[in-house]
Structures are given as C-alpha cells and as structure tokens.
Amino acid sequence: MIRVENLHRHFGGFHAVDGASLKIRAGSITGLIGPNGAGKTTLFNVIAGRLPPTSGKVFMAGEDITGLPPHELFGKGLLRTFQIAHEFGSMTVRENLMMVPAAQSGESLLNAIFNRSRVRDEEARIRDKADEVLEFLTISHLADQKASMISGGQKKLLELGRTMMVDARIVFLDEVGAGVNRTLLNTIGDAIVRLNKERGYTFCVIEHDMDFIARICDPVICMAEGKVLAEGTVDQVKNDERVIEAYLGTGLKNKVKEEAAHG
C-alpha cells in the first residue's frame, strides 16, 4: 500500500527524518513506535503531504505521491488524524461528519438557488451516512451535542468517524490514546479493528501505549533518531536490543529477560 524510500526531512541542521525506509502492507494495522523526537509525526506529515521531503520518495499502491498536497491525497483515500483533535467546536458532532465529503452540491450557489431538491436529497444521504457512522462508533447519543462539549476521547472517535465519511484506503492515526481514558481507548481500538476487518481499511498508528499497540497492531515498526530501527511482531520488536536501549529502557530490558526466563 505505502512504500517509503530513503526519506529525509531536515529543519536546518536537524534531521527529523534521516533516511527512513519502510512499507505499510495493504490490509494491515501497522504500529509506529519510538521515543519522543524519533521523527514519527514528521514522517506522517511528509507522507500525508503536510510537509515536503528534503529528499526521498513515497509511493501509494505503486504510484509516486511524493510531495502531493493533502487535498489530492484525500481524493486518493489517504487520510490522517492528529495528536490534538481538530473539530469544529460550534457545530454538532453530526454536522462535523457531514462537512467531510468533498464537492457537495450545496457548495454551489447556482445549485442552492436552482437545484434545491438535488441539494436536499444529497444532504439527506450524507446525514444518513453520518448517523450510520455514529452508530458504528457507539456515539449516536452525541449526535446533536456541540463538538466543543464532548470529551477528548470522544473527539478522537469523531476524528476516526470523519475517515468513514469518505472512501478511505489508508488512515494514519497520530497518538489516538493521548489524553484518552482506558474505556474510550478500548472503544477506539475496537472501532479500528472492525474497520480493518469489516471494511478493509489499512491503518498506521503512532502510539506510546504498548498494551494498545500489542492488542491491535501487526507488524510494529520502531523509529529512533529519524531512522527505522526495527520491524516485526510486537514481541520481536520489544525483545530487540536496539529498541530496548533506544526506547523501552533498561528497566523493561530486565523485565523482558525475567519473562523469558520464566517461560
């Protein structure tokens, strides 16, 4: 699905992404882990067109998408969410979802004046779709709430819901667990797994919660200092000496050894 080749993104003398190469397999839920400053979010921003690369290439299903702007990538089905949710706070949760589909008839002044029935019918279809999404995410009870009034975890669910309003092919999720309680994080995890299994979504997930990563992700990629350090199953990555030293820490290193000794 996604292939990144020798990607660099420099900010002056700082190499945020420093020759990273990786693949995200179609149909997978790939975890991306690493210490703060490893370059994970910058990598997301380059792939998703928010930042141009200094050098290197990004391919999607064999097509070179390097440097394409976000709106073009959106049209190709590549979407991303953010560490801090970006909702329209004065609009309801349902209205936030209804904003997502592009090129709606009602955006045209001529249609609004002369094709009101077309606009009305399309709006009804989009509303039905939004309600279906809310039900899927188990947040139908929030449909008429102002988006500014819902919790941080519910806003993360709303961001995930936005990806369901269009034909998403791959979704990049940036720290879905940040500021989210365990119950809501489990709900988010359930939704991601269902979207993957039932609707064929491919995901790449940045997250520091290793229990969450272990529950939903395979494979897992670890970055450090702008480079890909290791890749494999959760257990393979957790037991990789380089990952332990760079990210998980010597305390976990000893814990891992203890667990291995006790079978």
UniProtKB/TrEMBL annotation:
InterPro entries the record matches: AAA+_ATPase, ABC_AA/LPS_Transport, ABC_transporter-like_ATP-bd, ABC_transporter-like_CS, BCA_ABC_TP_C, P-loop_NTPase
Species whose genome carries this gene: Fuscibacter oryzae
Record-annotated membrane-spanning stretches: none
Chain ranges of the ABC transporter domain: 2-250
Gene3D superfamilies the UniProt entry points to: P-loop containing nucleotide triphosphate hydrolases
A molecular function GO annotation: ATP binding
Record key words, sorted: ATP-binding, Nucleotide-binding, Transport
Protein name (record): ABC transporter ATP-binding protein
GO CC, alphabetical: plasma membrane
Domain of life according to the entry: Bacteria
Entry-linked PROSITE patterns: ABC_TRANSPORTER_1, ABC_TRANSPORTER_2
Lineage: Bacteria, Pseudomonadati, Pseudomonadota, Alphaproteobacteria, Rhodobacterales
UniProt keyword Nucleotide-binding present: yes
Entry keyword rRNA processing: no
